[in-house]
Write a structure and sequence with these properties.
Length: 203
């Protein structure tokens, strides 16, 4: 049976039973993926979120979409995804905009914990973490956040829906976008310095 090249499902449908079942689906997707690339232009990538940060995110999701309050279930499932970093030869290439380090979700204490966690994550095996400085010259307009799974499947989230793209030509567009965005990112010591600078503002 041929799989659809696009799946567009509104959050009203996705979240009908709360955040937990949605995170279970993502957990299975992550479990079956060996190579993934993530571009996050305004928040920290899910697998690198602390529980407190994820809790702040899910609280806003529950309140905005007026869905069953299962924030703790969503947090637990999201935290479970982090276990796959460094396992089974999986690789993760993550691009965060500098704005993602600054977007305040949960208040200063939560953000201090999140940024400290990011500093620790820089040493995780299988993880390549880049930060795009706010003043870096871009080779492409920033656009929306997206994830590429094994070069075959792209997931995009909007305010109203989740979009899954599996058409080869469209996936190739996201591959090209990631490559262009990567040109503006810094890694290693320079990435650490950007995170540390934001952390210093909060202390």
């Amino acid at each position: 049976m041929t799989q659809p090249k696009h799946t567009h499902q509104t959050w009203d449908d996705y979240l009908r039973e709360g955040t937990g079942p949605v995170q279970d689906k993502f957990l299975e997707l992550v479990r079956g993926t060996r190579d993934s690339r993530h571009y996050c232009n305004n928040v920290i990538w899910g697998n690198l979120q602390t529980e407190d940060y994820a809790r702040a995110v899910f609280r806003k999701v529950v309140d905005f979409h007026e869905i069953p309050d299962d924030v703790e279930a969503g947090v637990a499932r999201r935290a479970a995804r982090a276990q796959f970093i460094g396992q089974g030869g999986r690789t993760y290439h993550v691009l965060l905009s500098e704005q993602a380090l600054r977007t305040n979700l949960g208040g200063a204490e939560v953000m201090r914990g999140q940024l400290t966690h990011l500093l620790d994550a820089l040493a995780l095996p299988g993880l390549k973490l880049g930060v795009i400085p706010a003043r870096a010259e871009l080779s492409l307009y920033p656009g929306h956040s997206f994830t590429i799974f094994d070069g075959r499947h792209v997931h995009v989230e909007t305010f109203s829906a989740g979009l899954d793209v599996k058409d080869e030509r469209e996936v190739a567009v996201y591959e090209k976008a990631f490559t262009l965005l990567e040109r503006s990112a810094v890694y290693g010591r320079e990435a650490r310095e950007l995170v540390e600078a934001e952390l210093a503002v909060l202390t």
